[in-house]
Amino acid sequence: MNHQQRPKDSDQQIVHLERVLQTLREDENVEVLLGTTLSYLQGEFDWRLIWIGLYDRAGHRLFGKGGMTPNGDLSFLKQRFILNPGDLLEQVVIQLRPVVVPDLREENRAGEWRSWAQNFNIQGAILFPLRYKDRCYGVILLGTDEWGSSLSSAEKTQLTIVFGALATALYQIEKDWQRTLTKRPDESLIGLISQLRELRSLDQYLQTVVEHSHEFIEPTRTNVYWFERERRYFWRRVSNRQVAPGLGGLKRPASGITVQDLGGFYQALAKEQIVWIGESHSSLKSELTGRLMQQIRARSLLAAPIVLEGELLGFLAVEASEPRIWQEHEKNYLRGVGQLVALTVPLSEMEGRIQQTEIDRDLTAGIARAIYSDADWETTLKNTAAQLCGRLNCEYFLLLLYEEELDRYEIVCQNLPRHRRAVPSPLKALDLVDLRLLENGVETVAIENWEEDGRLGAWREVLTEAGVRSLLALSTRGKKSEDRSSRVQAEHSNLQSPIPNSHSIEGLLVVGHSATRNWSRSERELVQVVSQQLGLILHQWQQSSELDKYQQFYRGLKSGLAALETPLEPSPEQISMSSPGIFRDLPRQKLEYNFAQYVAQTVSCPLVAVITWNSHQEEALIVTVAANPVFALNPEAAIPVKTDFLIQQVVAAGGVVQHSMSELPLATKRWLRSPGIGEMMAVALRTAPEHEPMGILLVADAGGRRWSELSVNLLDQMASHLAWWRRYLAVQSVCSLQRSDLELLNWYKQRRFEEFYRIVGTGVKELGELSQSILQSGKEQKDALKSLRYQQVLRQIGNALGSIHLVLKQEQWRPQFGLDAVPVGAWLKRSLDRAAPLIKQLEILLEVNRETLVSLPPGKTLGVRGDSIKLDLVLWELLAAACRRSSVGGKIEVRYQIVAADLLELSVTDRGGFDPQLIAIFNGMSAPNILGDANFNQPMFQVLLSCQRAVRLMGGNLSMEILDRNLVVARLVLPLARAC
Q1: What is the C-alpha to C-alpha distance for residues 888 and 909, in angstroms, rounded to an integer?
Q2: 131 forms bridges with which residues in the sheet?
Q3: β-sheet bridge partners, residue 281
Q4: Residue 623: what are its φ and ψ, rounded to 5°?
Q5: Labelling 930: which of 18, 59, 840, 956 has CA 20 to 30 A away?
């Protein structure tokens, strides 16, 4: 369409363009901007059709704003054009690029414009988008009566500049219009602050705040709710509506909100969170939202907390009677107003706070004078309890002293209401989380309602029975005491003990109330000051005893380590001075890990590795403690003991070996691979010179670390201690295994010799009787039957001698277990026959039941795999133990059944008594206390342990349990043998 532009001087064109652009930049009226653009297009070009349409993003349509037609009819140029998918106009709006149409009359996508083009004979057309960045503000259509003409580059540039300036002006107008619609919280807050400066009372403050908030947010009503601490509810203090009594009926909102029913709402406000409830959205749970909205009689709510120094004073609430979506600027405004109210509260209550501070100062000063002057500590504590309860308007006062050895809290002093029983002393230990909370000693643990608060759960039952529902608890050790303890521990950090470090809590002060209530900041601060004063008394009580404990601990540590370092037996003096906790039965892996942690703390290095092996192992195991992941080693790495350079060098050396990472060969770096390691030192875990080392202790740090002489000496000494500890545990394990074997052998031989003695003794006696009978009857009158019986007894004695000979020859130090097929029926018969005298003596009722669904081939019997003689002894021991546990006339039930495809279970059930702790030990659920538990060393229990070990060596298992009605069941599980 290059011929459509009217011929003009180029200077004149630039002047006209500059004048249009200046108008587009400066004017803010849309009609003026569109008219200027239209006039420019009419004056500079010979278009037959010009149309300007503005885009409505919300309705996805174009509003016609006018233009030019050949016949002057502008009515259709003012129409609204709906944009449909695939339309030509929608393409321009979406793609934001000009579209050239050769013949608008034949364009199917032109919609209504096609018919208008036919009426006006418009052929060639171009559609320009009014674009600002990625946003479309409208479309301009230019048409001519010529087909397929195109714009020259100069024309295209000229139109692009004008249309771009028009789009920019439209964007600026839209932006200014949106700014006028947006509310300005900062301006409203500045106006509110200017008014608050002229007010003095808190109620005047709150009334002004309510009016400003109501005017800015425009809700149905605006209220300020104030928090009543002792009764724990919010009452409406100020409202923009004054409702006369008796009006409103059931639709009038409640004048107060109880915390008991709306705990989640209260918790959110206490955490300084704004609460909003609107259309289909809420910051609270749905159940809680329903109860809250029912109380305030509203459909929407926006509440901002009023918090002063962490203490909830109340909240500012705007309420709407219809569902509403709360905007972000409304939330920010209400939050700011709530904070502003919190700042004004201290000014209005200044005089009362000053008076209360003076009263608290006199109270604490009086307590301090009583502590330093009164020799009767009990009187001092009682007076302190009475004064503090009177000041706080509370009913309970408990001063607790922590007993570290017993891990409990002794009640030193308590003050309770007269109608309440005293709280039983001592109180048990707290959970770890509660303990850490109280150890900090910085903030008081305040519980407003114990039904909603899970803290101090270990004392909940005891104190609730005493009537306590809310309380304050704080450690009597202040921050200075904690710092002093930390310095003392740092000075002795080079010593390590198996005894835990001294507890950081000396005592606790607890004050409580029988009703739920909130504890103000001033009350918490007063309790904190009083607790530190009372802590001086408790500290003096414990100081002398702690000194004695420390001395005893150091003596025990010194003697215990000396005993471990010496392969000889300790002297009587060392034994008397040793602590019982020195020789604890720790698993070796846990010992190595704990020791590595101790080494890391003592030497102050980020990596400690304990590398160990046994004489029959070709690869070593590794246990590491890495304070930083960059120093971590692969615990599954293969470490060849005999060929590794570092291990062999450390084992051959007589002390600590130091290396840089660059000095090690590649084979060692394959398992000692960590990007953080630069320097290291290692020492062999060596005990006596004649003992072969079975490990090394390695510490590592980043490059540039220099190991001091103290660190080297400490590492050498600690490696020696660890080596002796490991050797002690290894020797203990071997001795324990040997003891079990010898106990099993002793039991087995004892029972075999008892059987041998019984057979031989009975046989000798019968032989004597037979010999006397034969001599008296004469040779010619010998009885042939007596001679036959005489020969049978001799064979029985011979068989017994042969059997015991095999025991003496083949089972000298360890029993031998055969795995033969033992018929269950014969096995039961032999054991029951052996136990028959004891059963008859105690008048025991014996029942034998068989429960099995397995059918056996004809001529075959059910059997188990094991050693026949030892199975007889085991079952006899179980029957004998059940008889001894049972009372005269009791009942014993023997039941056997197939429990799996290849297992048979035989159970012996009685109604005797059995210690549950011993059953736990027997089943491996608990570790025995060999030195302190007398029941564990009872012969009957030791016999059962030997039976259990014998059964397990035959591939079975023996366990015991207590069922309902105190039924004791011994379950013997054995592998089945093929049908025999």
Answers
A1: 16
A2: 136
A3: 278
A4: -125, 120
A5: 956
Predicted local confidence at residue 375, as pLDDT:
56
CA separation for the pair 898, 975 (Å, rounded): 10
Sequential DSSP letters for 56-85: ETTTTEEEEEEEE-TT---TGGG-EEE--T
- Annotate 285-309 with b (16+ C-beta within 10 A) or e (fewer): eeebbeebbebbbbbbbbbbbbbbe
Nearest to 979 by CA among 855, 874, 869, 895: 855
In the prediction, which pLDDT does 573 show?
36
Distance from C-alpha of 409 to C-alpha of 846, rounded to nearest angstrom: 53
3 state DSSP class of 98: coil
Distance from C-alpha of 646 to C-alpha of 286, rounded to nearest angstrom: 66
Q: Please report, for residues 12, 55, 298, 300, 412, the alpha-carbon distance to residue 281 in angstroms, rounded to integers and kept in the order given.
A: 62, 33, 14, 10, 53
Q: Who's near 175: CB < 8 A, 6+ residues apart?
A: none
Q: What is the pLDDT of residue 569?
A: 34
**Chain Cα centroid distance, residue 569:** 47
Which structure tokens are listed for 213?
A: 């908030």
Enter the DSSP assignment of 511.
E
Cα separation, 399 vs 511, in Å, equals 9
Per-residue pLDDT, 549: 40
Interatomic CA distance for residues 19 and 902, integer angstroms:
105
Q: CB–CB of 523/311 below 8 Å? A: no
- What's 24's DSSP letter? H
Q: E strand or H helix at 175, and its extent?
A: helix 153-181
pLDDT at 349: 62
Label residues 124-150 b or e (16+ Cβ within 10 Å = b): bbbbbbbbbeeebbbbbbbbbeeeebe
Taking the C-alpha atoms of residue 953 and residue 819, their distance in angstroms, rounded to an integer, is 10
| DSSP symbol at 655 | S
pLDDT single digits (tens) 270-315: 888 888 887 667 887 777 777 888 788 888 888 899 888 778 888 8
For residue 8, CA distances in Å to 14, 15, 174, 499, 838 come to 10, 11, 36, 104, 137
User: What does the pLDDT read at residue 681?
Assistant: 92
Residue matched to tokens 């109280």: 438
Task: Please list, in sequence order, all residues whose beta carbon lies within 8 angstroms of the beta carbon of residue 789, skipping any fewer than 6 positions away.
Answer: 766, 770
For β-strands 221-228 and 233-239, DSSP reports them as antiparallel
Nearest of 758, 757, 759 to residue 795 by alpha carbon: 759
- What does 798-832 look like in DSSP terms, one character per residue? HHHHHHHHHHHHH-SSS-----EEEEHHHHHHHHH
Distance CA 93, CA 160 (A): 16
Inter-residue contact 335 to 345 (CB < 8 Å): no
For 453, 540, 733, 745, 874, the CA distances from 868, given in Å and listed in that order, are 64, 70, 31, 16, 10
Give the three-state DSSP class for 306. strand
Task: Yes or no: say if 453 and 437 are a contact pair by the CB < 8 Å rule.
Answer: no
DSSP one-letter string for 859-887: T---EEEE-HHHHHHHHHHHHHHHHHHSP
The pLDDT score that the predictor gives to residue 441 is 61
Contact 297, 253 (CB under 8 A): yes
Q: Where are the alpha helices (DSSP H) in 199-327?
A: 202-217, 263-270, 286-296
